[in-house]
Design a protein that fits this description.
The chain is an alpha/beta fold. Helices cover about 35% and strands about 15% of the residues.
Length: about 200
């Protein structure tokens, strides 16, 4: 959210360079000078880790803080929904934050504590290793600016299931994943199953 004070300040520079059109659209009405999108740049692993054939367990990996905006609670409940539907899956959440104990409690209450792994904050090389192990990058975020972690997942060759609000809508489409418009466990579970079926043969 851009505050009125910030918008007035953004009218002053010669050029403003937001990282996506999503942000640029909020800024341009306040400016008479150029607003130029300069996207984030993420590294692509070389070589790109190949996707493994789907095994007995589907590996979902999230990268982000355990904070309300990333909505790890919905992630755990979506995992429980998928398992109730008969899909054997597990969730690894990379990143720490104040909701850790709440997420652990909900995982316990939903009966999926043995299938949720909270690894905390790790160095970038370990983030890349977790993405390489993933079948699907899964982040039920409520709002993003650009979502670098989703772009990193795509650069690592992993399909993405993510909330729709933010700059990620400019680079996630049906060919690489799914944007979820409803913030419910059922909607995210549907999206995971859709992506697994639709992109199963994409290398």
């Amino acid at each position: 959210q851009v505050t009125p004070i910030m918008l007035r300040a953004l009218a002053l520079p010669d050029v403003v360079a937001p990282v996506c059109e999503f942000l640029a659209a909020s800024v341009r009405p306040w400016r008479s000078r150029p607003t130029t999108v300069v996207p984030c740049i993420v590294d692509r692993p070389v070589p790109t880790p190949p996707r493994r054939p789907l095994g007995d367990v589907v590996r979902l990996v999230a990268v982000g803080g355990l904070v309300p905006g990333k909505d790890p609670v919905t992630a755990v409940r979506a995992l429980a929904t998928l398992r109730a539907r008969g899909l054997s899956c597990e969730l690894t959440w990379v990143g720490g934050g104040p909701l850790r104990s709440e997420v652990e409690a909900i995982a316990q209450a939903e009966g999926v504590a043995d299938h949720v792994r909270l690894v905390g904050a790790v160095p970038p090389t370990e983030v890349a290793a977790h993405l390489a192990e993933a079948d699907v990058f899964f982040l039920p975020t409520r709002h993003e600016n650009f979502c670098v972690s989703a772009a990193e997942a795509l650069a690592a060759g992993r399909p993405v299931v993510i909330g729709s609000c933010g700059g990620q809508a400019e680079y996630v489409d049906a060919g690489v994943g799914e944007l979820v418009h409803e913030q419910t466990p059922e909607a995210y579970a549907d999206a995971v199953q859709s992506v697994l079926a639709r992109l199963a043969d994409v290398p």
